[in-house]
């Protein structure tokens, strides 16, 4: 009876002693397809943000309309985030990935219609961009939630974290590529069609790989104990448990707000800097430093926490340092000729902010156990999108129209330039408030670790590669 009770408590781990596990080489192909799809979707999301002024001038629209091409991702993924969780758990990984790949590719192609002469809608060609972005936005939750499911179903215990890290990091890699590639491809507005064509190539490639290369929902033989029983609490039951869990709610609000702030920073960086005379290329460099240093920070903190298990202490320290970096950036960005300081603060903002991401996801599982990982991480994603939409709208509403400044590098629309002093100070203030809320009020036990310790460690299955026929 004790063995049955342990299996009931730990779910997936209780079946591990008797099962025989195998791994398949094609898991790496699946991982590559999901990585390319994740990277492509992030690139499509922020295609226009680094060249917002030139996009507005080329299509004869306002900067607000350009910003909506990014905001629509947040709006659509709020309701569809919960649907995506259900699709992955009920329909299966294969169909979820293929569906997201086709949505992503179709959206990227429809965007190109806006610059094709015989399909032109004249002043309404912006509609093609918006519809394309909407389709790509529908794909985003399915893509972002896929790495966890892929790692659980196809990879053994000792490779699962690595697979999850590689697939998840492909998203910020896409953001990095967009920040660097868009300014390089569009030195002038007339090069917008080239940019749209280039960004469609990874989307088409990822769709072909997913459609032609993914043939099974699950491997013939599971690679680990978790793959034999990947479900925990039913979706609605787990959702109710999360909404009654105070530490989880605090984590969702603070960490979700942090993701929302990072979204705003990535999408609005070019507009914030061009008003003070900084070029699109420099804004793209700042975005690249922000992402690269963030990936480095996430990697280093992940190694540290794996050894020390100091989840809460690490996230609280990093959140405070991230808030400090945001304050320095908000002040520095209001002055001209501060390229070195801006580059340093953008790097530090990304280093400490991104470092929180993987640890906070682990904390979400720890404080919500035995709720399923997909549900606990999915709800945080939805919360981050809601907060991101509110922040994007709020920050744009706080901008002030100013007369043309000779030193400005913004491609002005008909109403003049925008002053971002108030919005960036508000963003820094909100980041500081979130950090204080998290440091003071977030406390939790490591429920999953305690359950594993109390029930003992199970023997790890050997990773035996099975030759493909």
State the main characteristics.
469 residues; mainly alpha; two-stranded parallel ribbon; two-stranded antiparallel ribbon; 4 strands; globular; disordered N terminus
How would you describe this structure to a colleague?
The structure is a single chain. This protein has a two-stranded parallel ribbon with strand order 1-4. It has a two-stranded antiparallel ribbon with strand order 2-3. By secondary structure, it is mostly helical. The protein has helices spanning 2-10, 26-45, 52-59, 63-91, 93-112, 126-154, 157-185, 192-213, 225-228, 235-243, 246-274, 280-308, 311-332, 339-368, 373-397, 421-441, 447-455; strands at 23-24, 400-402, 417-419, 465-466. The relative contact order is 0.15.
* Head-to-tail CA distance between termini: 42 Å
**Molecular shape:** globular
Number of separate helices:
17
Q: By helix and strand content, what is the structural category? A: mainly alpha
- Over the alpha carbons, how many angstroms does the gyration radius reach? 23 Å
What does the largest sheet look like? 2 strands, parallel
**Kindly state the mean pLDDT as a whole number?**
81
**Number of distinct beta strands:** 4
Order of helices and strands: HEHHHHHHHHHHHHHHEEHHE
* Strand percent estimate: under 5%
Helix content: over 70%
Strand arrangement in the largest pleated sheet: 1-4
């Amino acid at each position: 009876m004790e063995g049955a009770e342990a299996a009931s408590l730990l779910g997936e781990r209780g079946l591990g002693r008797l099962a025989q596990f195998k791994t398949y080489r094609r898991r790496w192909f699946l991982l590559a397809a999901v990585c390319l799809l994740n990277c492509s979707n992030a690139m499509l999301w922020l295609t226009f943000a680094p060249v917002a002024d030139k996009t507005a001038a080329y299509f004869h629209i306002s900067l607000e309309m350009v910003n909506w091409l990014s905001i629509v991702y947040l709006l659509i993924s709020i309701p569809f985030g919960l649907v995506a969780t259900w699709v992955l758990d009920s329909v299966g990984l294969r169909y979820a990935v293929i569906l997201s790949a086709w949505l992503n590719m179709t959206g990227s192609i429809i965007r190109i219609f806006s610059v094709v002469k015989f399909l032109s809608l004249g002043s309404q060609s912006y509609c093609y961009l918006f519809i394309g972005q909407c389709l790509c936005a529908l794909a985003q939750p399915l893509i972002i939630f896929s790495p966890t499911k892929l790692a659980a179903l196809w990879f053994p215990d000792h490779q699962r974290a690595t697979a999850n890290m590689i697939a998840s990091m492909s998203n910020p890699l896409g953001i990095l590529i967009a920040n660097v590639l868009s300014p390089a491809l569009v030195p002038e507005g007339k090069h917008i069609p080239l940019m749209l064509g280039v960004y469609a190539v990874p989307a088409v490639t990822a769709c072909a790989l997913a459609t032609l290369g993914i043939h099974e929902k699950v491997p013939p033989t599971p690679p680990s104990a978790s793959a034999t029983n990947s479900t925990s609490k039913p979706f609605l039951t787990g959702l109710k448990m999360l909404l009654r869990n105070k530490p989880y709610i605090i984590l969702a609000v603070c960490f979700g707000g942090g993701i929302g702030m990072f979204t705003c920073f990535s999408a609005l960086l070019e507009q914030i800097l061009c008003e003070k005379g900084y070029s699109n290329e420099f804004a793209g460099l700042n975005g690249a430093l922000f992402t690269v240093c963030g990936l480095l920070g996430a990697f280093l903190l992940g190694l540290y926490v794996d050894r020390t298990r100091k989840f809460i202490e690490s996230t609280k320290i990093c959140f405070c340092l991230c808030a400090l970096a945001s304050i320095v950036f908000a002040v520095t960005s209001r002055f001209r000729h501060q390229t070195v300081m801006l580059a340093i603060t953008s790097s530090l903002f990304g280093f400490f902010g991104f470092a929180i991401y993987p640890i906070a996801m682990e904390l979400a599982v720890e404080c919500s156990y035995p709720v399923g990982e997909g549900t606990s991480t999915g709800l945080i994603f939805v919360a981050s999108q809601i907060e991101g939409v509110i922040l994007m709208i709020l920050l744009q509403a706080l901008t002030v129209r100013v007369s043309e400044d000779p030193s400005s590098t913004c491609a002005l629309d008909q109403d003049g330039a925008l002053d971002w002093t108030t919005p960036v100070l508000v963003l820094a203030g909100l980041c500081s408030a979130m950090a204080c809320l998290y440091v003071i009020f977030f406390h939790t036990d490591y429920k999953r670790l305690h359950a594993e310790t109390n029930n003992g460690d199970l023997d790890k299955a050997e990773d035996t590669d099975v030759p493909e026929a």
